[in-house]
Amino acid sequence: MDDLLKIIQERHSTRAPFDPQKQVPKSDVKTIIEAGRWAPTAHNMQNFEIIVIENKKILEQVGKIKTYPSPEFIRENYEQLSMTEEELLQKKVGILGMGFPPAWRDKAQLEMAMMDTTPGTLDETIKGSPTILVVVYDTRKRAPASEGDVLGTLSLGCLMENMWLMAQKLGIGFQIMSVFSGPEQKDIKKMLKIPEYMAVSFAIRLGYPTVKSRYLRVRRDSESFTYGNEYGKRW
Ligand SMILES: Cc1cc2nc3c(=O)[nH]c(=O)nc-3n(C[C@H](O)[C@H](O)[C@H](O)COP(=O)(O)O)c2cc1C
Q: Of 46, 47, 169, 227, which is the most exposed, with the fewest CB atoms less than 10 Å away?
């Protein structure tokens, strides 16, 4: 029990570059997928398929796909940033601004940054990963009577967490790349021959960091979000 809690607490986002020469063993990728296979899903619909990309040429091609950060993302991202560790420790939610371009974390430059249409590339996110998992789902289906397939989306989150915990246990760096589900997915789908009716939910980069990537991780105290018998009442 203590071991499980330790893995849960130590699971983290590895945003550091990965060593492109250090391959993630196939047996470990299989174990991560096995953990995902047993994820709970609404109505046990198992509403996911996973494309494992290990081929260097394909990784290179995917890395060349252009990305266009949306003004909406830049604005709403700013709202979640803390500019110092002290600020984050106090807020207990959100993330540190350090990893983002300077203009994205400066209120005075934010409007300009939102108008900047210079594209980036997926390479900047992939950062040398030897293995990428692209998780897709069938847009023609939904969990029974689930408006907007909210239950299906929750299920994909369960898949994500199961795989993330297993990667943590195996000592493999893991980062979610939401950018794969944005407008960029049009190019990604074409490149990976993903059928039109399938959509990308998220992608994962797996690998071994080239630098130590410890950073401040915070959470709210459980007393601040747990109530007893009635909303707002102390438990
Ligand atoms: C649905 C979802 C999407 C996420 N998208 C990204 C992403 O695109 N890039 C990223 O670096 N982290 C992403 N994350 C990771 C969160 O930012 C991270 O879990 C959170 O800041 C807590 O940090 P920790 O994972 O180190 O505990 C995502 C997490 C979830 C659950």
A: 227
Which residue's alpha carbon is at the smallest distance from atom 19 of ligand 1? 13
Determine the average pLDDT of the residues in 124-129. 97
Could you tell me if 45 and 152 are in contact, meaning their C-beta atoms sit under 8 angstroms apart? yes
- Is this structure's pTM higher than 0.85? yes
Q: Is the pLDDT of residue 1 over 80?
A: no
Low-confidence winner among 123-127, 173-177, 200-204, 213-217 (lowest mean pLDDT): 213-217
Percent of the chain with pLDDT over 70: 100
Angle 2-10/150-170 helices, nearest 10 degrees? 100
3-state secondary structure of 92: coil
Calpha distance 138→232 (Å, rounded): 39
Residue ID of nearest Cα to ligand 1 atom 10: 176
CATH superfamily placement of domain 15-68+119-214: NADH Oxidase (3.40.109.10)
Kindly state the tokens that stand for 10: 């130590």
Which residue type sits at 74?
I
The domains of the chain are located at: 15-68+119-214, 69-118
Phi/psi at 205 (5° precision):
-105, 135
